[in-house]
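Quick one: structure for this chain?
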Amino acid sequence: MQLSKDDLLKAYRIMRTVREFEERLHVEFATGDIPGFVHLYAGEEASAAGVCMHLTLKDKIASTHRGHGHSIAKGCDVHAMMAEIFGKASGLCGGKGGSMHIADLDKGMMGANGIVGAGSPLACGAALAAKRLGNGGVAVAFVGDGGSNQGTTFESLNLASVWNLPCVFVVENNGYAEATSSKWSIACDDVADRANGFGMPGVVVDGHDFFAVHEAAGEAIKRARNGEGPSMIEVKFTRYYGHFEGDAQTYRAADEIKTLRGTKDCLDIFAEKVTAAALVEQAELAAIDEEAKALIDDATAQARAAPNPGAAELLTDVYISY
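Got it. Here's what it folds into:
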């Protein structure tokens, strides 16, 4: 699939914005000013960007506890996201959702989710709605390697095939289900092998390569839009930080992260490819680097200065009135 220069710059901007957002959160969380748990997406940016660049506002995504990258790639406001994570009233969910429950239905982001594997049924629901409405919409469920073992995911895979839903299951296999290696927790070599058992195609892609993810996602999403049913994409990569902020990561080799950052950085790989092919100038990428850093600096400053939710908000957004 041919990408224009504008497309390439957009892809890099998404990935760089996610990286700067996560690197800054790593620093800010250590101050103790961010409530709740935070799970960082750094190192996995090519997956969110490669998939979500094919999506429009009519398309929906269901995310995981590691959902910041998906949110940014789907178009959620970075300032409102940062305020949400700081628990402020100006946050995307009024400061009451925090890192693991960011949502923006206007952008088609149905929500990050603190329950492992809980996003898959939501994606099936959104896909069923799109099918019944005939609006050409597609639903994407992002699932981790741990979530891929959950019954909710298996049932969703089956339901999506039985009902021929316009749904794509993106299994983001970062090698660890919390602290358990996927080599210990998954019986098959590739999660994508399971797709055949549910009557859908499944492919494995290198999650460090934006172009590999983008191509596979394009094919799966086109297939879904054409009424050809669901697909599975297994994206293999490794996260740069622990399962959560504060994770001692004693289950990882001492030099594992350093090696990955030096040899398997999706941003470096992307930049090398597009500049070597003379598709984009290095100066253009550097300008995006600076813009992304300034954006995150501003979002953080605004979040810190924003007011907390008032006591009157305690019981709002709990029940819906019909």
